[in-house]
Amino acid sequence: MDRVRRQIHYEYIERLGLTGKNRTVCVLDTGISPHYDFDRRIIKFIDFTEHPLHHIHDDSGHGTHVCGILAGSGRASQGLYKGIAPEAGLVVLKILDKKGNGHIDTLIEALQWLNIHAGKYGICVVNISISISQSSSLSTDEEKKRRLMGVLKKLYDQNILIVTAAGNEGPHNDSLSVLGEQPYTLCVGCHDGNYKSRKGDLCEHYSGRGSNDGRIVKPDIVAPGTEIVSCQGKSRYGYTKKSGTSMSCPIISGIAVNLFELMKGRAGVKEISDIMRRGTTGVNAPRNQQGFGMVDCKKIFEPFC
Q: Is the pTM of this model over 0.90?
């Protein structure tokens, strides 16, 4: 996370003293472990999987890693691996099992719960670092697609920003996660800028891409996503590296939480999304790969400094 903060010019968030304090984000994933970096900020946890457990847990580690990128305090690393909104509250809905698998019906059920309870917890951003393949049943099941669109629109109408991962099925065209295609989501792809992985396997090589017909820009935006160091699910004080658009997604969610904190209700979800899209820098990639470009906190926050 130290490298990510440098890449996205995070210092402009720090200049304004923004931390996500008094703001809440909801994460739909494999759960969350009670890592030291989350302090006492896990406000609510619900397990929607087939065999639910009632205590806070993450049998995969994916969700914990995502939450660390988004809202980890970095306490266990003396701030080195601090997340983007380190004082934000967390509502975590477990919809994936230990292998990262889940069902569309479970996702819809969790989103329906969220529509009812989002106001109670003051949720302003929803992070969905999961991918629904173009070959999934959702692509052919019009009823489920309609239900999914409906619950997403209701969240959008409640002034809640829904941030989704582009998925890792690129680089061919039309390889976005089905969630990323939706008009009510801010879709995040991966690009690592000038970062060079030792293994040479950068996630822009497989980040999901939208259509190249120019009708709609998807993904909307890109962020780093290779070898990101964040909270480890099976260690209260440990960290680990993961790669993928799942890691890019919470970077954007965290920036959005800080924007909501800054704007203090003066901007709605459409305005926040537009600020995010304009606050980007091109990375010399096709439009259907980079969207509007790489997130740049200098462009987003400098006008307020």
A: yes
